[in-house]
Amino acid sequence: MHSESDTSPRILAFCCMYCAYAAADAAGSLRLSYSPSVEIVLVPCSGRVSILDILRALEHGADGVLVAGCEEGSCHFSTGNFRAKKRVEYVRKLLEEIGIEPERVQMHHVSASQGVRFREIVQKVTDEISRLGVINWNKKY
Amino acid sequence: MVVAERKPIKEILAMMADYKKILLVGCKGCVTVCCAGGTKEVGILASALRIAKKKEGKPFEVIEKTLERQCDPEYIEQVAPIVEGEGVEAILSMACSVGPQYLAKRYNVPVYPALNTTFIGGSLEHGVWAEFCQACGNCIIHYFGGICPIARCSKSLLNGPCGGSAGGKCEVSPEIDCAWHLIYERMKALGKLDELTKIFPIKDWSTSRDGGPRKVVREDMKL
Predict the structure, then answer these.
(1) Residue A137 falls within a domain, yes or no?
(2) Is residue A123 assigned to a domain?
(3) Is the domain of B159 the same as that of B104?
């Protein structure tokens, strides 16, 4: 959770084992550095990520959630990334109704060898969520 | 099964505006099958409510519980220790509308429905449910090849399609199949088309909602 003085966002990145996590690994092998704002959670497939996983991340202090999966058509489990996409859309719509910026939850696709692209995605998401800022919980209590 | 869907989150938030501690109770019956009010949906709504209340700067505690069903008093009784022992100010029920009514009868706290109960129906594909029954109290589908003209025809016609049937679709909406088109095709496949030439008499609606709230009694089951 954030302390009063902490203004850097915390972003949880659900990365699928077969593509996104491998891409993160590739970025590491290439010694590419990316924002420490992002904390990676390994999942077997982006389709493993449920609506509740995303909401709980926000509820417990994340300022943004990135769901990173395989390119469309290349999912190791065939349609897992399509399911993830629909769930991300559901959450974005729900957040909008609650009054939280839907842009805080995003899905991106990357393939296993794309270490550079993984870094670009992480930077893009971090920049966008930094612009939105840390979620303004109305700290009256 | 009874098919329902969650009310808009804004409507639910308005219902919960004055409360600090609620019990959110789901149902493992019909509403789990139609993905509206089961354990998963209880978790999602609880999380969404906590996030929304946190954004408003209001303290809010949600106790989550999912009962086997909410249409039997024995199951409703199971949340008594929570409602009566933990300072719950209101109950938000994710069952079909029967659930909140049973809860309201048993507990002396305000009870709110989180779902809109829509119809009796079944699934067409994963994630899609359609109306198949209107609970008219006198099932006649066997006269129509297993297709219910009361529920599936927009006008509940009993003696053939209206003039609005076109291309197998209903004039009310291109997404609605003309039930009479379906009945015709089914009876043709069964070799029973000649049965459709018989006039089906005017329906006695007293067995339906028109006769007032209904009750079914099994004397042999009463203790």
Answers:
(1) no
(2) yes
(3) no
This prediction's pTM: 0.92
CATH code where residue B14 lies: 3.40.50.2300
The upper half-sphere exposure of residue B188, i.e. CA atoms within 13 Å in the direction of its Cβ, equals 6
Specify if A78 maps to a domain.
yes
pLDDT tens, residue by residue, B66-106: 999 999 999 999 999 999 999 999 999 999 999 999 999 99
CB contact under 8 A, B51 and A58: yes
Angle between helices A51-59 and A80-98 (to 10 degrees): 40
Number of domains in chain A: 1
Contact B9 A98 (CB under 8 A): yes
Q: Which residue has the tokens 């609620």?
A: B22
**How many Cβ atoms from other residues are within 10 Å of residue B99's Cβ?**
30
Token readout for A71 is 């390119």
Contacts of B58 in chain A (CB under 8 A): 140-141
Instruction: Give the closest-approach CA distance of B41 to chain A in angstroms.
Output: 9
Over residues A84-119, the pLDDT tens digits come to 999 999 999 999 999 999 999 999 999 999 999 999
B162, two tokens: 């209206």
Neighbours of A73 (CB within 10 A): 10
| ipTM entry | 0.90
Chain B residues touching A100 at Cβ < 8 A: 51, 55
Here the CATH number for the domain that contains residue A51 is 3.40.50
Name the DSSP letter for residue A8.
S
Query: Chain B: nearest CA to A48, how far in angstroms?
Result: 14
- CB contacts of A59 in chain B (<8 Å) are 47, 50-51, 54
Q: List residues in chain A touching B: CB distance below 8 A.
A: 50-52, 55-56, 58-59, 94-95, 97-100, 135-141
Per the CB < 8 Å rule, is B40 touching A52?
Answer: yes
Q: Which structural domain, as residue segments, surrounds residue B163?
A: 134-205
Q: CB burial class (10 A; 0-12, 13-18, 19+) of residue B14?
A: exposed
Clarify whether residues B109 and B11 are in a common domain.
yes
Nearest residue on chain B to A92, judged by CA atoms?
B48
Q: Does one domain contain both B165 and B103? A: no
